[in-house]
Every structure is written in structure tokens, then in C-alpha cells.
Amino acid sequence: MKPLSEKILSVPASGIRRFFDLVAEMDDVISLGVGEPDFVTPWRVREAAIWSLEKGQTTYTSNYGLLELRIEVVKKMRERYGVEWDPKSEVLVTVGVSEALDTAFRALLNPGDEVLIPEPCYVSYAPCVAFAGGVPVAVPTRADSGFRANATDIASRITPRTKAILLSYPTNPTGATMDTAGLQAIVDVCVAHDLYIISDEIYDRLSYDAPHVCVATLPGAYDRTILLNGFSKAYAMTGWRIGYACAPAAIIEVMMKIHQYTMLCAPITAQIAAMEALRRGDRDADEMCADYDRRRRLFVKGLNDIGLDCPLPGGAFYAFPSVKRFGLDAETFAEKLLKDERVLVVPGPVFGDGGVGHIRCCYATATEKLQEALRRMERFVGRL
Ligand code: PLP
Fold first, then answer.
1. Is the pTM value of this prediction over 0.90?
2. Closest by CA position to 267, among listed 60, 1, 32, 120
3. Is it true that the peptide bond before 87 is cis, omega within 30 degrees of 0?
4. Which end of the chain lies in a sparser environment, N or C, as judged by fewer CB atoms within 10 Å?
5. Cβ(195) – ligand 1 distance below 6 Å
6. Which has more pLDDT, 12 or 139?
């Protein structure tokens, strides 16, 4: 047989998978592993989707997505951030933020173009850049600066091949958030070096301590930003596979071409559900967010009480404590914790070198489970 694609083979499989394979063979595991809400999609959203099926709405839609949904996206962005896009030409409805990311990179990159990616970060960014023929360039961030990227580190990695930067606040896996000044300094570097900004703001609604700053609103950013967002986290809709991109029309046009030939359109039932979420789902989203906030405080305090140093993360639903003081690397810590006490966490290096010595714990799980996980972790670290 002839060899498969070298480009794809050269990208390693996600380090998370090994842990999920281990769990599949075990009982009684408390999983703080998967980054997924433990809520089901709000009833009103499910009901809108069921009703659409009863009415027989089962067709393709416009390649861009239903215009009514794009109008709702624009309305929500205007309400929340005062930023404006044209629903007809500057919004593309995608199969989750995942497809939007892939499409954005493919729309922007020529072979060898570099994309700066602050790390630790979501596992898909670097592989998607590589699949699109680009070169991911890590910009490490540090625990002592709250895992926030800074403009000087970013500027120092710019070369003549740098095409874009990926920003994602609040951040998976660290829960880091950014204020206006920090983001503006990065945008200024992008303007000075004519870089595109891909801003994955999927956790925007899960900003607990300060209002989220939408990158596209910052002076200099709008014309060079592809803003990505979706429904998986804020509305507990991971299984619906629905998201969107907002960007200048010339970029959306190119992204649409890829989307048209690969996906054709996002599923109509998910689009109708997403429309309902935007129209009437604010209260549900706020309630879930308040619940995550309660769990965040409880869980992070619990971690610190048992000796896992963890500053309170400002957003998303992850804690990223240090395990350095226990003398085990993060992979060994996570593997032993799983085997000895049946608690699943993800080792930080899976998210990039900046994650060395840390573990990611997703606290979007029931309070009783979080409390039991803390008891098990206390027993575990007590033996180290
Ligand atoms: N972006 C980030 C930062 C994520 O954490 C995730 C999922 O964990 C995604 C994108 C994927 O989102 P979606 O379900 O909309 O494809």
C-alpha cells in the first residue's frame, strides 16, 4: 500500500486520548477530564429543535447558514459588545468552533506561513495549523503571570513568515482571562506587523470576575480579526455541533468556499436550536454560569487546602493547579491518581510545554462528585 499523508502522519495524536482509553476499562472513575458541561441543553432549546422536526424542517440551508440565525448572532454581538457585522456577508455558521478554526486557518495560510499560538492552549490549534500547511509557533506563557500572553513575548517570535496569531480568552486549559490593556498591547503588535487575529471566544460567557473583552472591539483589531464562537459551552450544546465565525466579508467569502465544498452547511436542526438559544436562552446560560462560578470557588479552595497550588482562574470551567511540589511529573501524577484513586485529570503538557508541572481539572461536574474527587486527591497526595 502507498503511504498515507505525511503532513497528517507527522502530527502526533492528542495526548488526552491515552487517558480516555484507560478510563474506558475502569469503574467508579470521577472524571474531571473532558471539557464538557454536565448540564443537558436547556429544554426550550431542545423543544424548538423537536418542533422543527415535527414541522418537517429537514433540508439543507444556505451555505452561510440560516439568515435568521446570522441575524440573531449579529444582534447578540451588538447587545453584548457593541460590535457590528453584516449578517449577509460577514457571518458564517459552522459545525462547531472546531470547523470554524479549521476553515479559518485554511482560508488564511499559504504553505510555510507561521501562526503564533500562546500556550498552554486548546489541543486542536497547532494540529489544525499544520493540516492547513502552516507552521504553529508556540509562545509559552507562565503560571506567575496568570498564563496570560504578553505583547513583548509575542513580538519576539515574529518573523517575515508570521501571518496570524491565535488568541483564546478565557483560555482552555488555564482559565486565564485578559483585560483590555493586555489585549490592546497584543493587537497593537498585530497592527504593526500586519497579522491576522483568530480569536476563539467560545468561553466568553464564562468570565466570572470581570466582563469579557471581545477582541474585535479593540482599536485596530476589527478589520484583521476572525472572531469564533459557538454554543457548546455557554448553552451546554456540545453534541449539536454548531458555531460561527464573524469577519470581514472578503475573509468570510474564502471561508465559505471551503465550508461549501466540505460541509455544505451546518445541520438545520442545530441551527434552529442555536437560534432559540440566542433568542431566549440568556437566563439559562446565566444560571449555568452562576453554577460554574459556585463550583469554581468550592473546587479551587479545596485544591489549595490539600496542597495543590491554584490561583482562582477568571474564566472557562477549568482549574490548572501545580503539582510540582510532589516530585512527580504531571503525566505520572495523573496516571497514578487515576490508577490509585480513580480520578481522571489531564496532564498539563498535553496543552503545550507551558503546562509542564500542572494538571487540568474540569469542574463542570456535580458538586458531590467534586467533593468526592477532592477527598480522593487528598488521600492520594497524602501518600506522596
Ligand atoms: N475552542 C476551545 C477553546 C475549546 O475548548 C473547544 C472544546 O473544548 C472548542 C473550541 C471546540 O468547540 P466546538 O464544540 O464548538 O467545536
1. yes
2. 60
3. no
4. N
5. no
6. 139
Q: What is the pLDDT of residues 27-41, one digit of tens each?
A: 889 999 888 898 999
Whether the CB-CB separation of 294 and 208 falls below 8 Å is answered with no
pLDDT for 223: 98
Nearest atom (ligand 1) to Cα of 203: 3
From atom 2 of ligand 1, which residue's Cα is the shortest distance away?
122
Domains of the chain: 6-41+283-383 (3.90.1150.10), 43-280 (3.40.640.10)
* Cell numbers 470554524: residue: 100
Q: What is the widest separation between alpha-carbon atoms in the chain?
A: 60
- 240 within ligand 1 shell (Cβ under 6 A): no
Using CB atoms within 10 A of its CB, is residue 151 exposed (0-12), middle (13-18) or buried (19+)? middle
For the stretch 114-125, pLDDT in tens is 999 999 999 999
As beta bridge partners, residue 243 has 94, 230
